[in-house]
Amino acid sequence: MNPADTPATPRLRTSDLPDDDAPPVAAASREITQDTPLASLTQAEIAALNERMLNETNSASRDVLIGPISPIAQLRHAYLDGSPSVLRQIDWLEEKGYTHYRAAARDGNCFYRSFAFCYLDRILHAPNLSSAVARFRDVLSSIEFSLELAFEDDSYKEFSEQLNDLINLVAIQGSEMTTEDLLGFFLEVTDYVSYFFRLVASAEIRSNTPPYSDFIIDQDVVSFCQSQIEAVSSEADHLAIMALCNALRVSIKLAALNAHLPDGKIHEAQIFTDIAPENAMDKDLPPIMLLFRPGHYDILLKPR
Amino acid sequence: MSTNCKRRLIRDFKRLSTDPPGGISGSPCPDNIMLWNAVIFGPAETPFEDGTFKLVLTFDESYPNKPPHGQIPFADVPPECNRWSPTYDVAAILTSIQSLLHDPNPNSPANAEAAQLYRENMKEYVRRVKATVEESWLDPDDKIDEESESEAQVSAS
């Protein structure tokens, strides 16, 4: 609904609110120390303290949401005790050229965050940037209809705008931008962009239900989407990943480390799963590569 | 980044003002948009009926990617602790708190005492809720002691 079409009511007094970018009003004018009696704190002071503490925690953990490029051999440490099978798989990946990875934070958003960063990074590194940007934008505008149907009041736009802004930035800066530059911009808005991809997966399942409905048991489609995809702490399962790839027409190459792989020669098919929709529009680009260990996704890298 | 959060809170307020769901109201403090006062009317046909519950919601820059924090007297209502979704707005938060008054979830308690009474001593639970309801009619200034004792942490993320 366009706010301009809504008749004003006498209760609406948003003009009283501070400007969007006005600095927050300092709530506490006195200095609060350990000796300040807790009972003397006003609600505004408690709010200010809370906000400061949360913002400090957030900024401290921000940089590790997607970690630096690290040698995959570092992962061996976690499996030295009693997981020879996983060690063999890590060594196998390294031998085959998958020598590095980026760790994603274990906060329930690892899949969507890793996916979102790879999605943008491969636009940046596409051989023909402007045609790649155009293609990715086309697909994004083609799914707007299902997003509008699934989420009332255009509530998804708050999140899609952040992705569009990043794509515009990639399009403008092009070869002047490095992957690390992109990572910096991405981390500023990572929660918005990662969440947008949850909405994309959810809208795909809601609007194109038949291929997915057999996998949704004991729940209707909407409550499945709300509790298993849209809730920020829910981890991505195979269904959500398929839906995301189908909606965006992109391919993922997923390496899954398996603690119970039988002894003997490792075959590629035992490690890798390709999720590639038939109508994928990114066949000329290297696929998004993710490394799966039970309960967690990281970004897998194969330097050229 | 602060503008995203504030822009969203302004939108939430516009929506709550133009299309308020029944039995709830809320608005930001005039000098701090990150701090909201809200009122929830107790749902009919529950022990909370006729109560008017004042609630302070505290937002930080992580909203809407993380839920706000808030407190409501003697009630077992954790709004969306682990089911938070950033498309929820203030109207949705207040509505869900109101509906949780109706249908508490004592298995994931926000107020351990309330949850225990709900499970083990329904009569006492109802008595305590009614006392809280009656207390909600008083002006904050006349409020009898021990109010802080019975306050529940509404939100955890």
UniProtKB/TrEMBL annotation, chain A:
<dbReference type="GO" id="GO:0071108">
    <property type="term" value="P:protein K48-linked deubiquitination"/>
</dbReference>
<dbReference type="InterPro" id="IPR042467">
    <property type="entry name" value="Peptidase_C65_otubain_sub2"/>
</dbReference>
<dbReference type="InterPro" id="IPR042468">
    <property type="entry name" value="Peptidase_C65_otubain_sub1"/>
</dbReference>
<keyword id="KW-0833">Ubl conjugation pathway</keyword>
<dbReference type="InterPro" id="IPR019400">
    <property type="entry name" value="Peptidase_C65_otubain"/>
</dbReference>
<protein>
    <recommendedName>
        <fullName>ubiquitinyl hydrolase 1</fullName>
        <ecNumber>3.4.19.12</ecNumber>
    </recommendedName>
</protein>
<dbReference type="GO" id="GO:0043130">
    <property type="term" value="F:ubiquitin binding"/>
</dbReference>
<dbReference type="Pfam" id="PF10275">
    <property type="entry name" value="Peptidase_C65"/>
</dbReference>
<dbReference type="InterPro" id="IPR038765">
    <property type="entry name" value="Papain-like_cys_pep_sf"/>
</dbReference>
<dbReference type="GO" id="GO:0006508">
    <property type="term" value="P:proteolysis"/>
</dbReference>
<keyword id="KW-0788">Thiol protease</keyword>
<keyword id="KW-0378">Hydrolase</keyword>
<feature type="region of interest" description="Disordered">
    <location>
        <begin position="1"/>
        <end position="34"/>
    </location>
</feature>
<dbReference type="GO" id="GO:0004843">
    <property type="term" value="F:cysteine-type deubiquitinase activity"/>
</dbReference>
<keyword id="KW-0645">Protease</keyword>
<dbReference type="InterPro" id="IPR003323">
    <property type="entry name" value="OTU_dom"/>
</dbReference>
<feature type="domain" description="OTU">
    <location>
        <begin position="99"/>
        <end position="303"/>
    </location>
</feature>
<dbReference type="GO" id="GO:0005634">
    <property type="term" value="C:nucleus"/>
</dbReference>
UniProtKB/TrEMBL annotation, chain B:
<dbReference type="Pfam" id="PF00179">
    <property type="entry name" value="UQ_con"/>
</dbReference>
<dbReference type="InterPro" id="IPR050113">
    <property type="entry name" value="Ub_conjugating_enzyme"/>
</dbReference>
<feature type="domain" description="UBC core">
    <location>
        <begin position="4"/>
        <end position="138"/>
    </location>
</feature>
<feature type="region of interest" description="Disordered">
    <location>
        <begin position="136"/>
        <end position="157"/>
    </location>
</feature>
<feature type="compositionally biased region" description="Acidic residues">
    <location>
        <begin position="136"/>
        <end position="150"/>
    </location>
</feature>
<dbReference type="InterPro" id="IPR000608">
    <property type="entry name" value="UBC"/>
</dbReference>
<protein>
    <submittedName>
        <fullName>Ubiquitin-conjugating enzyme</fullName>
    </submittedName>
</protein>
<dbReference type="InterPro" id="IPR016135">
    <property type="entry name" value="UBQ-conjugating_enzyme/RWD"/>
</dbReference>
<keyword id="KW-0833">Ubl conjugation pathway</keyword>
